[in-house]
Amino acid sequence: MTDVSYSPQSQEAEPSLRDYYELMKPRVMQLVVFTAVVGLLAAPVSVHPVIGFASILFIAIGAGASGSLNMWWDADIDQVMKRTAKRPIPAGKVQPGEALNLGVALSGLAVMMLALSANLLAAGLLAFTIFFYVVVYSMWLKRATPQNIVIGGAAGAFPPVIGWVVATGSMAVEPWLMFALIFMWTPPHFWALALFMRSDYDDAGVPMLTVTHGRPSTRRHILAYTVLLAVLAVGTGFTSIGGPIYLLAAVILNALFLKGAYDIWQRDEIIADQDDYAVEKKFFKLSLLYLFLHFGAILAEALLRPWGLGGW
């Protein structure tokens, strides 16, 4: 458990709409929306555009609620880390209580409205996702174990499953393959970030793998998870949500990702520090493109399938 404490800054002006928007982690929200849309459109059941739009909107609101609650809880460590010091709460733009109230209100709204616009199973999954991210990951795992991002990554992997359930009202193997892609992608993505952020997690007392096991071990873990991810990603190309477009993208992307992970594994800390962790930063940027293009390829297969051009 970290021993840092939050020291509230004086709030000189009323928060702007932009401050509240930043509180909801818009970059994460964009990823949630995109993967949920892919899950919805990849499902073998068509959805009325109004229902689909409304459902994605409420999933996005649920993601924003999670971000707000996460920032409320993590205000103490956010003010210590360089990467997060300018967030609305540590910057003194929004008070913690306001973030808590916003997160709770938006959570209730998102779950209730998704139940009305789609179905109870989708709403239940959204409620569980918010609970998992805020309580299981943020309040428990993040400060308790170096496996925080491994287990906690499940929270970010649920949106395509929710999107699929919005369309079908039931579970299937295919959305869990999309879940697995995000779940296995999350550790190498965040561990690469932890490598070049260097002292941030040490200063905040967060037991990231780089802190508890050291950077050489983190490099080995990145390579191991990337190998497993590559097998999963390419294998998905032979399933019902895959096809030639997806398979081609997966082969190319995973070859690049494996090369990047291998380069990270070979790195020496002295050399890495001398060139400002250029290889690690390159891998991190590639990881963002990696996930977007995989889900973009799944979406392409789904959109082309009615025309006889997608899938096998």
UniProtKB/TrEMBL annotation:
Complex and partners: Interacts with CtaA.
GO molecular function, one term: protoheme IX farnesyltransferase activity
Spans through the membrane: 28-47, 53-73, 94-114, 120-141, 148-170, 176-196, 222-239, 245-262, 283-304
Record's subcellular location: Cell membrane
Gene responsible for this protein: ctaB
Record protein name field: Protoheme IX farnesyltransferase
This enzyme's EC code(s): 2.5.1.141
Membrane topology, record value: Multi-pass membrane protein
PANTHER family in alphabetical order: 4-HYDROXYBENZOATE SOLANESYLTRANSFERASE, PROTOHEME IX FARNESYLTRANSFERASE, MITOCHONDRIAL
Purpose: Converts heme B (protoheme IX) to heme O by substitution of the vinyl group on carbon 2 of heme B porphyrin ring with a hydroxyethyl farnesyl side group.
Keywords, alphabetical: Cell membrane, Heme biosynthesis, Membrane, Transferase, Transmembrane, Transmembrane helix
Pathway: Porphyrin-containing compound metabolism; heme O biosynthesis; heme O from protoheme: step 1/1
Misc. remarks from the entry: Carbon 2 of the heme B porphyrin ring is defined according to the Fischer nomenclature.
Highest taxon of the lineage: Bacteria
